[in-house]
## 1
Amino acid sequence: MSDTPMCEIPIDVYRRLRLLYLIEQFDVACFGSVRLHKTAYFSEKEQQVRVFTFRKARHGQYSEDLENTLEQLLTMDLVVAEPMESSQGKGNKYHAVKEGSVPCPHAQWLAAISADAKNAIEQAVQTYGYKKLPELLETAHTQDGFEDAAGFDVLLQANAPEYIPVSLSQEACDDLILALSPGFVMTLLDLSQAVKEFDFRRVRSD
Amino acid sequence: MTNYKVILHERLDKQFAEFRKENTQHSNALDKALEKLGADPRGAGGLLQGISQPELQGRVYKLYVGGPRRYRLIYFIPPPSERVPFCPVIPLYFSQVLRGRLDYSKLDLDRVGEDIVADFKANNYSKFRVLG
């Protein structure tokens, strides 16, 4: 693959790809929103290009950008939220929908944008994604600058440009943008429902 | 052998007519593309990559009218239904802008195909026609 960027994608699309890839890395599911935010924080921390801003909140590092992006992925039926069983904790667990017979190129797309980001996400899920929650919180709360920060202070600032250069063909880039655009995907989901009730025999022929 | 039929919405019908008028050199290519869609929609275009939702997987296709760097047509193939004696093929979006010049930041993706879906939902049969 050429190193020369052949196209650009909007930052929102890149955020969705990064978060989706992170959730896809969990074996069964990401158990809880706190875990999701912390794992994403650790995946972003050492990155040169960061897409989520994290602030200090009640449970530590929290990103509103991430929360909005998660909502979009849920709306697009790419991620499913289910209540955790009481033994698993409180809140929701999140898992990516299983791909069917057609493999999805999320890993390939992410590698084409930033192999470092892809590796950092995989590493963060392995290192932090399965820690016991108290241990994960302790690790998160002992990060540099955390204790001194006041509530809602920025702990990690996003710095990604509005458009991200991508070393992908124009066609692959088009697919990436469309497949991760909530409006377009929602239309398709609506269409797939609407045609079930539509009586095609009543459409006039030429 | 599956019997496919292209179900064309009146807005795209008008858009195709306009395209034929403005791009006479690609008019045949558009006719051929629509013909292919009716004969072998899965072979005519390529799958849109990255669609992992179970209800959409393997159903959203793209085709370039007039060659690989030309005009993009996106269509949907719903699952077969016992109620319908043919398998519908539904064009949803056609870009009259050359692919290399299409700027998605200026394209309102929230509105792509919105009118077509609304007419399906409202059972507005008169807004559609079967091609061929």
Note: Chain A has eight helices and nine strands.
## 2
Amino acid sequence: MREALLLFFVVVSGTGGEICVTRAMKRVGEVTDFRPLAVVRVILRALKVPWMWIGVAMMALAFFSLLAVLSIENVSFVVPVTALNYAAGALGGKFFLGERVTPRRWAGVLIVCIGVTLVWLGKR
Amino acid sequence: MSNSRFRSAVILFSVAGPFRILVEFTASHKIIANYVDFHSPKAAQAAHSSASFELATKSPENRAIMNGGVFGCIRVHRDENFCLSLAIASRANSGFCGSRLSASFPNSGVWHAHCVMSSRGLHFKTYCMLLIMVVFAPLGNVLLGKGMKNVGSAVTWAPSRLPNIISLVFTSGYIWLGVASLLTFFVAYMLILSWADFSYVQPASSIALLVVALLGYFYLGERISPLHWAGIVVICLGVFVVGNTPPRTTEVR
């Protein structure tokens, strides 16, 4: 039961964080210079966008939940289950961002859920 | 329009998105040059200030972005060549691919600049970043898993033991190596998201799920049942189906 709760945090908080970080990086603009100093400058610029901080906080919560769940379960079980991110992403897009989720996308999400179920059943 | 002192003024169109651009200059629909000479930077400035732009795109939404989003500047290079950069402010959006930007400069003679946007040159950069993501994310997870197994199961974590557990976590070499791997992944991920769509990056990085299972099996010696393997393959399949859907669903019709 505890691992299910922790996995819930990993998925929901992780997806929320990714969406926030995407928003922040789109505001920063395309990165064309990959010299270390320029990359550091991009990171500093990204840190000035509030969305980045919200995203990082959510990702941190997801990270510590991941650590806790990794102490209970195998990596090859935990990481595939985090693919539920795609389901969370589709639901989040529909209900929070007003995106129109295509039937094909729902089908993909359904296949992911079936896969996660198989992984869960095949655990032992 | 030619002058020996200020030769080969290059006009660059740059787009804030995943596009490389080909520019051709034409007069009455005939290509005259790949570059244009100005008499002086002042002439270039005059050309620029009177320039007008037009973008032919497939999607009306993109045209709306273009109308308010074109701006430019002139840079004079040390060798007295100068270039006129016209930047288009836009979101990274595949809808721009194949569209045509034209500019006309009434004060500098009868010529126009056209460019067709293509995604050439972008793929290499994208694939490099994806490779880094697909290697370092699973490696990080596996190292974290190995580290946490030494700390002990969270099922038996009592609140009073929490400080002890936290110190165990933060003194584990595996955890720090895992964190370093995940940070490498995260930087690559941030960089790629600045030009590629989230819904492109997420499915492409789903290979990482298979890599994790392989590393768990061969490196950590985890036992994975056939049903478990099947589940992982089905998940990857599902992620690809998700990824084959249009990246934008909020388009104006």
Note: Helices of chain B lie at 41-49, 60-69, 122-151, 162-170, 173-193, 198-204, 207-218, 226-243.
